[in-house]
Write a structure and sequence with these properties.
About 70% of the residues lie in helices and about 0% in strands. The chain is mainly α. The chain has one domain. Helix 3 runs antiparallel to helix 4 and helix 5 runs antiparallel to helix 6.
């Protein structure tokens, strides 16, 4: 009797769950925090990214508020490199200033809270 081999079926939720669990297990340790004892301006970005992938957008924003503007800025930069938007450089400058401001304010708040 001839039987068909089993078909491996992976749905999107299982794949996303395995990706997020892999990311959680392989997060980089912050060298800045390790050597200086305080968080760097980028601390929390990995955790916020994993929370965003899990659908916890509010927790992601609380963990690292600059993640979504950073993703927008990098995505827009990649599109601008290929599509050459007319006002692309201006939009990138404004989004960089906005993102850097959020990072700076978040970092200052972290320092004040932790001391």
């Amino acid at each position: 009797m001839h039987t068909e081999p089993p078909i491996l079926v992976i749905n999107k939720n299982e794949m996303l769950l395995s990706l997020t669990s892999w990311l959680e297990e392989h997060m980089f340790a912050c060298a800045y925090k390790k050597y200086f004892g305080i968080e760097c301006p980028g601390c929390g970005m990995q955790r916020a990214f994993v929370e965003m992938l899990n659908g916890n957008f509010i927790l992601s924003l609380k963990t690292y508020p600059a993640l979504l503007p950073t993703i927008f800025m990098l995505g827009y930069l990649i599109l601008h490199l290929f599509l050459k938007f007319k006002k692309g450089a201006l939009v990138l400058k404004i989004s960089f200033i906005f993102t850097a401001s959020i990072m700076f304010i978040n970092y200052i708040i972290k320092i004040i809270i932790n001391f």
